[in-house]
Design goal:
Length: 238
């Protein structure tokens, strides 16, 4: 198994494994008698080790290349935010873990830019890294009650603009495509292929990301609004 193909049986099996691990973690945290804080810290340590493995193994096994070696993709940043979010409940880290790691990062799970199969280290770096980020965000939402509403969406949009402003000069200077906002396209088919040529593509990427972030916050904002109304209305029982 030297090569990975998107939308294959292997792809489905990997996604099912990630989902299964996330569900198990959430269920365990809800079990009565489980020391939740200790579980959070243990999971945070695992997430930190995953980040060290993914980034450290690349630096140790591959020659440095400014086009792909710098840990500047959103998933790279999310891999470091994940243990911080779970260990400390720091609101900015939880917010960006959700919007960058799960919502925008889900594109990597659906259309992975990956060619290597299970016989190669890059396969495990990719799936363990992205899977840990997704599982951490689901755990934070379903087991720890994080609710990223419109305030969180506003913060994520501003942080994303700052991120693009930081990586775009690096992309233009080096020819890299960190954040997928550079002139080049991934080797594998992705949604970027439908967004036209660069630099106009940069505008569409920004608009699409903004819409996705707002839509991802809308259900939580609506639920919070309903909860506030029911709490203020004596007839609602609360």
């Amino acid at each position: 198994m030297q090569e990975f193909h998107p939308f294959s049986l292997m792809h489905a099996m990997v996604l099912a494994a990630i989902a299964g691990i996330a569900v198990i973690l959430c269920l365990v945290r809800r079990v009565e008698g489980v020391v939740q804080r200790r579980l959070d810290r243990g999971f945070a340590v695992v997430l930190l080790l995953v980040a060290i493995f993914c980034h450290g193994s690349r630096l140790l096994t591959e020659p440095f290349d400014g086009v792909r070696s710098l840990p500047l993709h959103l998933c790279h940043l999310s891999s470091w935010l994940a243990p911080v979010a779970i260990a400390t409940s720091w609101w900015p880290a939880r917010t960006l873990l959700y919007f960058w790691g799960l919502i925008l990062g889900s594109q990597a799970l659906i259309t992975p830019v990956l060619e290597e199969g299970p016989a190669q280290l890059e396969f495990w770096r990719f799936w363990v890294g992205h899977g840990a980020i997704a599982a951490a965000s689901v755990y934070d939402l379903a087991a720890r009650g994080f609710r990223p509403g419109l305030r969180a969406a506003s913060f994520a949009i501003v942080a994303s603009l700052v991120y693009v402003a930081a990586v775009l000069p690096i992309n233009l200077y080096s020819g890299a495509n960190y954040g997928f906002v550079g002139p080049s396209l991934p080797a594998r088919p992705s949604i970027l292929d439908w967004l036209g040529p660069w630099p106009l593509r940069l505008l569409w990427v920004g608009l699409l990301a903004t819409v996705v972030i707002v839509l991802a916050a809308a259900p939580w904002a609506a639920a919070e609004k309903r909860h506030s109304r029911s709490g203020a209305d004596p007839a609602a029982g609360g």
